[in-house]
Amino acid sequence: MKLKALFPLLMLVMISACRAGEAQTPEDTGEMPYGEIDFAFFTPRALPAVVTKALIIDNEKVVSTYRT
After folding, report:
1. Of 16, 27, 35, 55, which one has the greatest count of Cβ atoms within 10 A?
2. Model's pTM, two decimal places?
């Protein structure tokens, strides 16, 4: 009698617990897919520039924005 009452609950627990964890992309977690990145910009002396924003587009079309 107890087994029949617990069977639906047991099946529900088994079905809900057997979910495989999906791989999370860096965009989902907010982490960067790369290590530490440094930027070096070279300009002519006659045309100095101040860089305040850099955009990187990787091969998967993910845009990463950096403010300096």
Report:
1. 27
2. 0.37
